[in-house]
Amino acid sequence: MEYLIRSAQQHEDFREAEIKALATLHGFDVEILSYSNESPYCVVRLPSDDAAKLLIERSILACAIYRLWGQGSDYDSLHEDLRSRTESEWSKYKVSSFWFQIKTFQSKRSATARQDIVESFSYLPFDGPITPQNPDVEFCVCEYFDKGTLTPKQIYMGRLIGNSCRDVINVYDLKKRSYISTTSMDAELALVTANLALAGPNKLMYDPFVGTAGFPIACAHFGCIVLGSDIDGRCIRGKGEKDVLSNFRQYGIAGRWLDGFTADLTNTPLRKRRFLDAIVCDPPYGVREGLKVLGSKRGPVEEVYIDGKSAYKQADYVPPKKQYSFTAMLRDILQFGADTLVDNGRVVLWMPTANDADVELPFPQNPYLELVSVSVQEFNKWSRRLLVYRRLPSVEVDAAAISAYNHQAGHTADELNDFRRKYFQGFKS
Amino acid sequence: MKLLTLNFVSCARKACKSSTSSFPLHPRDAELELVEMEFNPQFLQNMLPKLEWEALQIICNELALPTLPSSTPAASDLFESGGEGSSPAQPTQVARDLHKLLLETTIREGLLVCSNCGHEYAIKEGIANFLLPPHLV
Ligand SMILES: C[S@@+](CC[C@H](N)C(=O)[O-])C[C@H]1O[C@@H](n2cnc3c(N)ncnc32)[C@H](O)[C@@H]1O
Ligand SMILES: [Zn+2]
To answer: CB-based contact (8 Å) between B38 and chain A?
Structure first.
């Protein structure tokens, strides 16, 4: 069955990935029949109205989903398509109360024009009352205009199945959150990230670069039990009344925050066991948050004593840290995912990419992980990508890929952090 | 740190990872607290096959908590059998006990000790610190 998804014209590059992830989350197939980043309207094939409802209820980037009644490049072809698709269903709505919505993209319609559009559907044998409030059935006409034109280029008509949960973006708005930092991800993208991680009830999610817990909060909203760690313990502990836990309390989801602990991902205490359903993170790349790992710049060192006592056993001891390459960190994150994710569990990872082709960072790869989607967020002078990987069930892993990977490991560990260098040069090319 | 999390951590030192005695880490001078968590028996069901039951038994013993059954409960132990028709299965006392043990029992203050290398990790206000000094990295 064909459905029309109407989305916000926002974070366009993430929409298709979100639709597919939500279908995977609920265990049904979705086929994208028409999609463009330039249009808020997308046509998909789904197994049923129930599937469409489940999908839309979890969507952040979509607004609503409709059973597609017809589409066309003008009203004549729309009406013709509508007739051939749905004439046999019309009688179902004979006595229903109903309402028509009209949505225009990149243009406006006057009240009379809207009236005319609705009138053009008067051949539908609907005898029920026309009620804007809670009608039995609601239809929507969606018009796509090329910028600056007066006639729509594509028109869709559909029966409303359900609305998305886009409103929760407001609930999690960072401006209203008690504890945030300069690197907190905005609420909308954090929630989308959680969707791409297939967050859901009964799952365990982990963020190894947890900061102020933006991702665990988003995943916990969708029902996950969540775990986070950071090399900087102060960010978990926070200041005074404001800490990670107070954020969870603010949203009434403290009962899903399993633990926060202080750890360096490259020296993680977590065991190599397949216990995580999702790993979600925004690793530091040295712009605002220095990428550091445990260890001394001077290489291996002897234990330090103060007055005959081990220095590290003093209460205020802060272990030294050293620089590390972003490329190596990405590789470590994927390997950690390969080691700890359940079959089909996901690594969802943000990384920068310069628009400049010559500094583009390659996608990190791991033979146990399959790249599922790549979405790009553009800023003025740079952009970043959201990468989604799936942990392959071990039987699906290619043995040749593993040996090639093991062979090449070790050579790539210490390249310079290109992005960082570029950033401080101010993107001069 | 919750006992569920403790079941997934070992000594952070790379040199200890391959040694079986680096897991579980042993609580010392532990001050326990109960932190209320959302009761979710399906989540427990998801976690059961991932637990190292023996390690959990050792920890319970060391913390003087009630003795656990000798083997991991089965998923069927979490829900009452023979629920009528389509009504969702009711969680059992086993599920409630496991929830309290794994998700609510928290080490608030204390140390976690690796019995392979003897390194001690401090827990303060429920937050464990696994950072290592350079000579142990
Ligand atoms: C971009 S921020 C993540 C922000 C987070 N998503 C939030 O909502 O606040 C990156 C975080 O990684 C931490 N970090 C840096 N190096 C690390 C390492 N080696 N292991 C673990 N965390 C590290 C930093 O302390 C910082 O909090
Ligand atoms: Zn150890």
So the answer is: yes
* pLDDT 10s digits, B1-49: 999 999 999 999 999 999 999 999 999 999 999 999 999 999 999 999 9
pLDDT tens across B82-123, in order? 766 667 789 999 999 999 999 999 999 999 999 999 999 999
Query: What is the domain partition of chain A in residue ranges?
Result: 2-165, 177-426
Asked whether A81 and A72 are in contact (CB, 8 A), the reply is yes
Q: How far apart are CA B115 and CA B18, in angstroms?
A: 13
Domain ranges in chain B? 3-67+90-136
* Residue A242 buriedness (CB in 10 A; 0-12 / 13-18 / 19+): middle
Domain A177-426 in the same topology as domain A2-165: no
Candidates A210, A235, A312: best to mutate against B (most CBs of B within 10 A) is A312
- E-assigned strands of chain B? 26-34, 105-113, 120-124, 127-128
Decide: B9 and A270 in contact? Cβ < 8 Å: yes
| Phi/psi of residue A15, nearest 5 degrees | -70, -45
Per-residue tokens: A385 = 């990508």
What is the signed CA dihedral for B96, B102, B106, B112, rounded to 10 degrees? 160
Q: Which CATH superfamily is domain A177-426 in?
A: Vaccinia Virus protein VP39 (3.40.50.150)
> Which CATH number is B3-67+90-136 given?
2.20.25.10
- Measured between beta carbons, the chain B residues lying within 8 angstroms of A236 are 127
CA of A281 to the centre of ligand 1 (A): 8
Pair A412, A328: CB distance under 8 Å: yes
Residue A207 CA to residue A226 CA, distance in Å, equals: 8
B129–A295 C-beta distance less than 8 A:
no
ipTM: 0.97
**Ligand 1 pocket, mutate which of A182, A209, A336 (most atoms under 8 A from CB):** A209
Q: Measuring CA to CA, which residue among A294, A292, A289, A293 is closest to residue A312?
A: A294
Starting at the edge strand found earlier in the chain, the sheet holding A225-230 runs: A257-262, A225-230, A204-207, A276-281, A341-353, A383-391, A369-378
Ligand 1: centre distance to CA A313 (Å): 25
CATH class of A2-165: alpha beta
